[in-house]
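Propose amino acids for all 91 sites.
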C-alpha cells in the first residue's frame, strides 16, 4: 500500500511540474507560421459561394450533398480537391 501511495504522489508531482513549466517561446527569425486551409468548395444552386457558411440562413436550405475525392475533382477540377459542398436552397 505504501508503494502505491508513493507512486501516486510521484505521479501528481510530475503532473504539477509539467503544468508549471513556462511553455511560451520567443519568436525568432527561424520560426515560421504556416496556415493551411482544407475548406471544401461551396456551391449554392450551381454557383460557387465565396462567403462564410454562417451567413446562410438554415431555413432556406432544401438539401446538402457532399462530393469527395475523384468525384469532386472530376466535376470541379483543382477547386474541388478538398471536397465540394453542394447546397440547394428552397426556391
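Proposal:
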Amino acid at each position: 500500500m505504501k508503494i502505491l501511495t508513493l507512486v501516486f504522489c510521484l505521479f501528481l508531482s510530475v503532473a504539477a511540474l509539467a503544468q508549471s513549466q513556462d511553455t511560451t517561446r520567443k519568436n525568432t527569425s527561424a520560426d515560421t507560421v504556416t496556415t493551411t486551409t482544407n475548406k471544401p468548395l461551396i456551391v449554392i444552386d450551381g454557383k460557387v459561394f465565396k462567403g462564410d457558411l454562417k451567413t446562410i440562413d438554415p431555413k432556406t436550405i432544401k438539401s446538402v450533398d457532399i462530393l469527395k475525392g475523384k468525384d469532386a475533382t472530376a466535376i470541379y477540377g483543382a477547386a474541388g480537391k478538398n471536397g465540394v459542398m453542394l447546397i440547394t436552397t428552397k426556391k
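Confidence is low (pLDDT under 50) at residues 16-22. The radius of gyration is 25 Å.
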